[in-house]
Amino acid sequence: MENVLYIIDGHGLIYRAYYAFIRQPLLTTKGENTSAIFGFMRMIMKLIKDKKPDRLVCVFDSRVKTFRHEIYPEYKAQRMKAPEDLISQGETIRTLVENLGISRLEMEGYEADDLIGTLAAEARKNSIKSVIISSDKDMLQLANDTTTILVNRKGVSETEEMDSEKVFDQWGVWPEKIIDLLALMGDKSDNIPGVKGIGQVSAVKLIQEFGSVENIYENIGAVGSQRIRKMLEEGRSGAFLSKDLVTIKKDVPIDCKFEDYGIEDFPKKIGIDLLQEKELYMIANALIGSPPPVKKEDQKAGAYYLIEKEEDFKKLKERIVNAEIISFDIESTGKDPVVSDIIGVSISIEEEQGYYIPIVAKTGKSFGYEFLKKELKTILEDGEIKKVGQNIKYDFVILLKYGIVMRGITGDSMIAAYILDPQTRRYSLDDLAVKYLDYTTIHYTDIVKDKDKTLLDYPIEEVTRYAGEDSDIALRLVNILERKLEEEKLRDLYSAIEIPLLVVLGKMERTGVRINPGHLNKMSVVFGEEIANIEKNIFEIAGAQFNIRSTKQLAKVLFENMKLPVIKKTKTGISTDESVLEELAGTYEIAAFLLRYRMLTKLKSTYIDSLPALINPASGRIHTSFNQTIAATGRLSSSNPNLQNIPIKEAEGKAIRGAFIPEDGWQLVSADYSQIELRILASLASDMNLISTFNNDGDIHAETASMLFGVRADEVTAHQRQAAKTINFSIIYGISPFGLSKRLGISRKEASGLIRMYFLKYEGVKSYFESVVENVKKNGYVETLLGRRRYIPEINSQNRNVFEAAKRIAINTPIQGTAADLIKKAMVTIDKELEKR
Question: What CATH number is associated with residue 830?
Answer without folding.
Answer: 1.10.150.20
